[in-house]
């Protein structure tokens, strides 16, 4: 199979190591990966702010860049969910519909498509998993705690395959960190308080690293950690799964 690698703009600009880890991990697992070099923002920030009508050109470019691949893989739940639910291109609607059905966040691609059952990775640290809202509630990467249903977690299943990882459990496993895209700008004080609450929960359990499948949430938490001079670090799940 050939997968088109969809890298969100904030990862491209601020966390390129996450894109590299995603590429290396997929190649280790036998996937042929292509990277369309003229890809741009998927349009999620405009849509989240109520201006989805301004995403026409970014959507058309996305279709042009990715329509030919067997799958599209992205190390971000929020960007993936935006494409799954909102990608349209009036000039190429059939192609857009095809993309909506074959775009995957990295964790769900590993578990649902590749059906990975073993990884050659090592990360000897205490890790707390942050369940991002888009990944959990939109992509169903893990069970929501308010539902009376059997628990599951695709990210935890993968982390359990990594040698040396000690997965520590927070008290409130699926509480929002407060990032919320443009919410952290329009409601800064609320956003920061929510982030501080999550960090306090994670830190009290002795975690060394907070991981997630959304680097946007981790970016928000990292800013608070730095301002508080905390020794706790953030790391994208792709970096752990690719670790040696």
TrEMBL record:
Residues 5-84, 128-221 form the Cysteine-rich domain. It comes from the Bacteria. This is (Fe-S)-binding protein. It comes from Compostibacter hankyongensis. The lineage of its organism: Bacteria, Pseudomonadati, Bacteroidota, Chitinophagia, Chitinophagales.
